[in-house]
Design goal:
- By secondary structure, the chain is of the alpha/beta class.
- It folds into two domains: 149 residues, Rossmann fold (3-Layer(aba) Sandwich), CATH 3.40.50.1100; 201 residues, Rossmann fold (3-Layer(aba) Sandwich).
- The chain is 44% helix and 15% strand.
- Helix 12 links the parallel strand 7 and strand 8.
- Helix 4 packs antiparallel against helix 5, helix 6 packs parallel to helix 7 and helix 16 crosses helix 18.
- The radius of gyration is 21 Å and the shape is globular.
- Bound molecules: pyridoxal-5'-phosphate.
- The site of pyridoxal-5'-phosphate (PLP) has 16 residues, from helix 12.
- The site of pyridoxal-5'-phosphate has 16 residues, from helix 12.
Length: 438
């Protein structure tokens, strides 16, 4: 199947997830010169390895540049030294860096995947006259990234279903104030109800006959490809250290980690990954026991990672031929409680002078624990953890934990001033169907 088809369909007809037939390995000279390359150049090379000639080079370069119209800085965390203390003369560079993935328009890393997918869909449908409807159920963050990523993309209409009164004010404003080709449906029900309605729409023959539908949830392969870019980008900035690279990924549905594992298959020299989770730890448990036992998710303060049956686990299994020992060579699984997460937010703020959100804090904990296990050679390791959201997106928890005010960046503040526009519907599928067919 072509990439175009896989991207348009989202999910395979048998309910499975699309995977590339083979994962291309990038030539050694790409890695030898990666330090001199820009983020856009690196991203283009990685994308083209998968896209091949399905999108012309000039278009793909433009697509990548439009996706990444914001920075992805890598920051070394330095210990905050007491003024006057003798160490102040010798500032020690720590071996912990944070890769900030939250500088996109909605300030969460899902912007990267959503922006790329929107443009990819549009590129592969170039010349098509029909209209494509993207349906997405959201518990908050995915919907806002999709709304912003697909805003004004020609030929595509987006319908977002979100659970009434169960998203934060800011999230609701991010979902409901875009206008143009984005419509928000406020569902009188839970996130599971929203997801169920979306699934019903895909199965309903009458709806499918009338509307060309696709989904923008994280199972789409077009969301995975761009998430590889920034692993290469982090390496580009650290390659001169010649240390072993270890990357900790705060995980929920495991799309982000899967992208990292695929980057490694492409030749990226990462020694180890840490799959860091909150108490929804079915993957760390699998890595321990070899048994994958899904269960209903538990609510935590890192709520974008409250997933009891992570979809991308199927892709992880595929990458390792279903062999837990093979996966364990590349991935260490660690999970943390809310108490540990809050303590980490506090610790990093007071000792390293850096404000984390709860998801990034789980990533930090994974890396710190890894470095503790590797005490005897920790100085040969360069650790990176991914920070997936701006702390202001989780203002309540962060403020309570730190006892300080968290500034809302103007980029988010503008949403709060806009007027909500959503259509209230019941959780009955017929309401959605009527809307789609009207
Ligand atoms: C979605 C999300 C995650 C989890 O990413 P997965 O790819 O689903 O594992 C982590 N942090 C934040 C802030 C998110 O929105």
């Amino acid at each position: 199947m072509s990439l175009a088809e896989a991207v348009t369909r989202g999910l395979a007809p048998d309910g499975g997830l699309y995977m590339p037939e083979r994962i291309p390995v990038l030539p050694q000279n790409f890695f030898d010169t990666i330090r001199e390359k820009s983020l856009h150049e690196i991203a283009f090379v990685v994308a083209q390895a998968f896209v091949e000639d399905e999108v012309p080079e000039v278009d793909l370069r433009k697509l990548v540049a439009e996706t990444l119209n914001f920075e992805i800085p890598l920051k070394v965390l330095e210990a905050r030294l007491q003024p006057g203390s003798p160490e102040a003369l010798l500032p020690k560079t720590s071996n912990i860096s944070v890769l900030e993935l939250f500088h996109g328009p909605t300030m969460a890393f899902k912007d990267v995947g959503a922006r790329f997918m929107a443009r990819m869909l549009s590129a592969v449908r170039k010349g098509s006259t029909s209209e494509l409807t993207v349906l997405v159920a959201t518990s908050g963050d995915t919907g806002s990234a999709v709304a912003s990523g697909f805003f004004n993309v020609p030929g595509i209409k987006v319908v977002i279903l979100y659970p009434s009164k169960r998203v934060s004010d800011l999230q609701e404003k991010q979902l409901t104030t875009m206008g143009s080709n984005i419509t928000a449906l406020e569902v009188e029900g839970s996130f599971d109800d929203c997801q169920h309605m979306v699934k019903e729409a895909f199965q309903d023959a009458e709806t499918r006959a009338a509307k060309e539908l696709t989904s923008a949830n994280s199972i789409n392969i077009a969301r995975l490809i761009p998430q590889m870019f920034y692993y290469f980008w982090a390496y580009a900035q650290l390659s001169q250290t010649k240390k072993e690279l270890v990357v900790s990924v705060p995980s929920g549905n495991f799309g982000n980690l899967t992208a990292g594992l695929m980057a490694k298959r492409m030749g990226l020299p990462v020694a180890h990954f840490v799959a860091s989770t909150n108490v929804n730890n079915v993957v760390p448990e699998y890595l321990q026991s070899g048994l994958f036992e899904t269960r209903p998710s538990v609510q935590t303060i890192s709520n974008a990672m409250d997933v009891g049956n992570p979809s991308n686990f199927a892709r992880m299994l595929d990458l390792y031929g279903g062999d837990v020992r093979e996966m364990h060579k590349d991935v260490l699984g660690l999970s943390f409680t809310d108490e540990e997460t809050k303590a980490a937010v506090h610790e990093v703020y007071t000792t390293l002078n850096y404000m984390l959100d709860p998801h990034g804090a789980v990533g930090y904990l994974g890396l710190r624990t890894y470095l503790e296990h590797a005490k005897d050679h920790a100085d040969q390791i360069q650790g990176v953890f991914l920070e997936t959201a701006h702390p202001a997106k989780f203002q309540d928890v962060v403020e309570k934990t730190l006892g300080t005010k968290v500034e809302i960046p103007t980029q988010l503040q503008v949403y709060l001033e806009r007027k909500k526009e959503a259509k209230l519907i019941s959780k009955n599928f017929n309401d959605l169907k009527q809307f789609l067919l009207a």
